[in-house]
Amino acid sequence: MARPFTLTVGSFLSALVLGSSAFAGGTGFNPWDERVIREGIDYDALANDPEFSLEALRDKGKELFEGRFIKDEGAGRPNATQAIVPTKRRRPAGHMFLRLSGLDANSCQSCHAMPVSGGAGDFTANVFVSEGFESADFDTTDPQFSNERGTNHLMGAGLIELLAREMTADLRAQRSKAVVAARENGQAVTLQLETKGVSFGVLTAQPDGLVETSGLEGIDSDLTLRPFGQKGVFGSLRQFTVNALNQHSGMQPAERYGVAWTGTADFDGDGVDNEISIGQVSAMVAYQATLPAPGRKTPLPDIWVEAAKHGEHLFSEAGCASCHRPSLPLESLVFQDPNPFETAGTLRPSDVTTALKLDLGTLDWVKALPKDDQGRTLVPLFGDLKRHRIADAARDTLGNELLSQRFVARDVFLTAELWGVGNTAPYGHRGDLTTLHEVIDAHGGEATEARKAYTALPENDRQAILAFLKSLEIAE
């Protein structure tokens, strides 16, 4: 088994950053050069350099996340589509930017910018995504070809992924125990799956090893939580980053579009080989994983403090907190890159000899989070990392959802984490709802009773709930 190496903030020395063997510094760059990529980042060297730090890697990732890629370094995909499975275009694209099918940005920060880098996006930053796996070129917003998506913020995303990993491991362990028990007893075993207080339905294991998954709720049959995206279809920041680099900027990460998977170093045919290396993706993941979690707005006038306190109580009483759980407990703060449950097409643990591990527990904002009586970190996400049917015809929330993205039903969405909701308007999966009241009123399906409870409240109580939600902010 590969020996993990843990990077910590405390070991940072600026003199060592420049001299680290992980960086192959570029030459011939003027200070005003417009290229984003000026040096290579060697993943293996990172994992084996005891003097290198999480802070240094994060800074490199920030440069790549906020920089604006140009054609000379690979921006554009004239012969490739946005599909997650490398797919050639039917006809080469003669354009650099296309607002509909992309590419539609040359910087991650183009969309993730409100109110800070790594934040959410306005309606003008909406994207149009296909069903996901492979797609012909489309050049229209017609819903038969694409679904419209608003931009979620990435603040606290490292903790979200760590929660999903622990919950995935727990659910899979429960399945394994049921399979063993069924085989040993010669009888079917039906198990109620629950982890961190969140129920995911039932699973039945047969004595012959067959596992019946039709009773699962809010999760795929492989029992992997996928906590990113409006539909909950991305399992890791790394997968999300690899997909987005190609789709939105036409920058092809070598781990999916390189020789190992496609047989060529220049899959999109733009004349640039291996546009984004494994190490560079790791730097971008480190940046996103260390973005500080949203908190509570301060200072607030006394009238707001009192209203928010009352509103938080009413929020729970109305049933909203059954999905928007105030916090989930996290056992470990060590973030392994790549994700232990990563899938094909993205770097996996078996692809590396030494796994990179980032200790998020060394970050000041993580240290400030509350602990439970077992010493676990309480992540105040106001979510459950589970998919729910929250749309129905009566609430007109299906909108243009005519495609079933990654086999997730059109009326099913991941519970939105509400931390940061106070300053990330507009709302909804299309970013077309202007107020918190509108987005609450748009809830249907499983959320119908909670919506009705909110609607039935006196106006002052509804205002108190809104005061509470408006206090959940991303620090600027």
TrEMBL record:
Keyword match Nucleus: no
Signal peptide annotation: 1-24
A GO molecular-function descriptor: heme binding
Alphabetized InterPro entries for the sequence: Cyt_c-like_dom, Cyt_c-like_dom_sf, Cytochrome_c_Peroxidase/MauG, DHOR
Gene3D superfamilies to which the protein is assigned, alphabetical: Cytochrome c-like domain
Keywords carried by this UniProt record: Heme, Iron, Metal-binding, Signal
Domain Cytochrome c: 306-473
Pfam families tied to this protein: DHOR
PROSITE patterns: CYTC
Protein name (record): Cytochrome c domain-containing protein
